[in-house]
Structures are given as structure tokens and as C-alpha cells.
Task: structure prediction
Amino acid sequence: MHSSSSHSVEFTHSNHRFERVYCNYGIELQLKNSWTAENPGRRFYSSRRYNTSDCCGYFKWFDPEMCSRSKGLIPRFQKKIDRLEDEINDLMIKEKQLEAELRRTKGMERSLSLEMVELNNKHIKELDKIKKSQKFPFGIVVLACVVATIVFLKVFV
Result:
């Protein structure tokens, strides 16, 4: 990594001062993040074509060097963030699966509910038919009871 001479222009964005940095070819450089063990999360300016054969080789750190404690903590925090993001993604997939299962279950519930109503109506009709076929005229039942009482009284009295 080496730096070449360049020019820069300062600007402010969201109360932060930045500078637009240009390489020898007049191309605006990008602000990138380093995720190496030696410089985790440290920002730097480089060409879009950095690490390619047609790059001018311009490189400039944006952030100052970090202390060794920060260099140790940032990768641990990044791993934890990555694990939590993976867990969130897994939970979102599980949530979508459960929502799909819930929709299927609700559909089955509606279908079973309609089927129960149909069966209930069918049973009511069958019971009505049975009641009608077993119905005796009330007068015949009363007459039979009276005759049975008379016979009982004559036999046992």
C-alpha cells in the first residue's frame, strides 16, 4: 500500500466533516472499511479499482490507528452481530413457515366447520324422519293406557 499525491475538498454531511479525495487521475476515491485483524473497521480512501492491476495505487487512512483493545473488541463484536443477524434471519424464516402453517390450519378449520354444519343438518333431518315414522296418534296412546288400566283393575281387584 502506498499513497500518491492527490488533492482533496472538505464538505460536511450530518454534522461530520469529510473530505472528497481524488487520485492523481482526478478520480474521486471511495471511503471503504478495512476488516483485517490489524485494522478492524478502520476506514480508508482508495480507488474503485484498488487491488487491481489498473489501479494508480492511491491509499489514505481516514480514521486514526486504533488501540490494541479496540482491535480486539471490534472483531468480537462483529462476530456477535453476525451471529445475532443469522439468528434473526432464522427466526424470520421460522415466522414465515409458522404463518403459512397457520393459514393452512385456518383453511382446514373453515372446511371442517362447514363439514360439521352439513353433518349436523343431515343428522337433524334423519332424526326428524325417525320421529315421524315412530309417531303414534296421541289418542291411540291414551286409549291403550286406559285399556291397560281397566284390564289391570279387573285382573287384580
Remarks:
- Residues 1-5 have pLDDT under 50 and may be disordered.
